Amino acid sequence: MNEKNKLENEKDKSELTLNNKKDIFVTSEKEIKMINDQIKQVGNVNFNEKDIEVIRDHIRTQENFLRDLNEKFIKLTTAIQSNDFKIKDLQKLRDKISALDKCPTCLQIVGGDYKDNIVHKAIQELRSLEGETMSNKKEKAEVDIKIDSSRKLIDEHRQSLSRLEILRVRLEGVKEKQFRLNQLEKQKVSALADIDLIRKHIESLNSMLKEFDAYDSVYEKKNREFREILQKESNLVGKKAGINAEIKYLEKQVVDLDNEIKRIEELGKKLNHMRELEFWINNKFLEFVLHTEKNVMLKLREDFSDLFSNWFSILVTDTLTVRLDESFSPIIMQNDYEIDYAYLSGGERTAVALAYRLALNQTINSLLSRIKTRDIVILDEPTDGFSESQLDKMRDVLQQLKVRQLLLVSHEQKIEGFVNNIIKFKKTDGVSGIDSS
User: What is the per-residue pLDDT across 200-236, written as a single tens digit (0 to 9) for each?
Assistant: First the structure.
């Protein structure tokens, strides 16, 4: 019956999982349909990136045109206001001359002809200014109409530009929707496969549960017998109580002893393991590591020394030879006798240093295959103290490096013939800079 209950629980869980998978499948289908509709809706819209530039050009053109109209409107307004002031001044002059009998300066009587002449000139100038003002007001009204029209046209263009930019954003969102659509399709296929698998599992559980139907009657019979036994057992509870208490105490002691035995056994296993590990590390592993390290370092020093000797032999072809000792320090030999570094000439010292660094570069690159600077070499004054013959040999050295990028810093003019590009520097007022001459 416990096994049957387990199967029924597993069936309930499987049915719950099946419903969840169905929900995922239905939800995926709905979202797929919605995204497809959105993609179709956006896909049916015609969009051209050039339309945005065309509308922007129209807006710039109209804005320039509007700016010119505003400037013209301000000029006309200023001219009208100026003419109004002039008209008022002429009207005051006309009225003042017409009412004038004596000159306020010399107190002589002003003649009628003189007044009529001045008034006539004022009236003519008034008519001219009034005509000009009427013409300016008419032109101002026309300019005002054009300004309103231009502003409306700019607003229409800006609205069209906004719609196109919104459409462009929607079109860019199509890519994200397509990516989401692919994920949903995979999720849908996965959910469909899971649904099929879970259904088969539920069918298998149903078949197994049917096999347990035959045990129901057996279970009921045994259950009745069990109740009868319980009834008899209740009669013996009093006698059993003391025995049970002792049994529980002894069982507890047994359990405690079993746990202690298991703990001691585990400690014994760990102790033995630690002893074995200690023995292996002290007697085997360290010896193996030291042996391996020694062999690797010997091979590394041998290769390093060969490279060092080869590079030096290219630069210095006389009786001098070089090699490395156990600490990777250079040893200089002349006629099978070791000589001190201090007795070398400047060019020979530079050759030792350059050969050592080139050999070190090759050794490091051979050990570290993923080093990012393996194809670049930078040399600062690599020919200091070199003779003419050594400078000639320097060309062979540079060619044998076979790197993608070589940077040289040198004062030797002859080096210029060894490279593809030259950058010269000069110092002016204590500041270094590129010599453009």
Answer: 888 888 888 787 777 777 888 888 889 889 988 988 8
Alpha helices in 316-412 (DSSP H): 346-367, 388-401
Cα–Cα distance between 46 and 170 in angstroms, integer?
12
Domains of the chain: 2-209 (1.10.287.510), 296-424 (3.40.50.300)
The DSSP symbol for 344 reads S
Do 308 and 321 touch, CB atoms closer than 8 A? no
Give me the percent of the chain exceeding a pLDDT of 90.
Answer: 11
Q: How far is CA 47 from the centre of its chain?
A: 30
Q: What is the CA 241 to chain-centroid distance, rounded?
A: 76
Neighbours of 4 (CB within 10 A): 16
DSSP 404: S
Residue matched to tokens 């107190």: 107
Contact 57, 124 (CB under 8 A): no
* Cα–Cα distance for residue pair 168/17, rounded to 1 Å: 42
pLDDT in tens, 40-88: 766 555 656 777 788 888 888 988 988 998 998 899 889 888 888 888 8
Residues 6+ apart with CB under 8 A from 374: 365, 368
The stretches of 212-318 forming alpha helices (DSSP H) are: 215-235, 237-280, 286-315
| Average pLDDT for the chain | 83
In angstroms, the CA 283 to CA 175 distance is 64
